[in-house]
Amino acid sequence: MSKNSKNILLLIVLILSLFFVTKKYSHYNLQKSLSACILYQTQSTKLNNKDATEYCKREINTSK
């Protein structure tokens, strides 16, 4: 294989692995954001847990 084809193959593999990793961990990131939002809302605004959960879900879904 020539040097250029090895570099192109490596680039394709890296792009595909990045795609799969972002798909795998996107739910985890959303869950962490939701947990942090609920914690902040319950401590700073004195909302109960149910209201804070609904508020945070609505805010996170509109920002996506």
Please, could you describe this protein's structure?
The chain contains two helices and no strands. With 64 residues, it is an all-alpha fold. The protein has a domain at 24-64. The longest helix is centred in the middle third of the chain and has 42 residues, at 3-44. It is rod-shaped, with a radius of gyration of 20 Å. The N and C termini lie far apart (43 Å). The mean pLDDT is 89.
Number of helices: 2
| Helix share, percent | over 70%
Low-pLDDT ranges:
none
Distance between the termini: 43 Å
The biggest beta sheet is recorded as:
none
Helix/strand-derived category reads: mainly alpha
Count of extended strands: 0
List keywords for this structure.
64 residues, single chain, rod-shaped, 89% helix, mainly alpha
Summarize the topology:
Elements: H1 3-44, H2 49-63
Short note summarizing the structure:
With 64 residues, the chain is mainly α. It has helices at 3-44, 49-63.
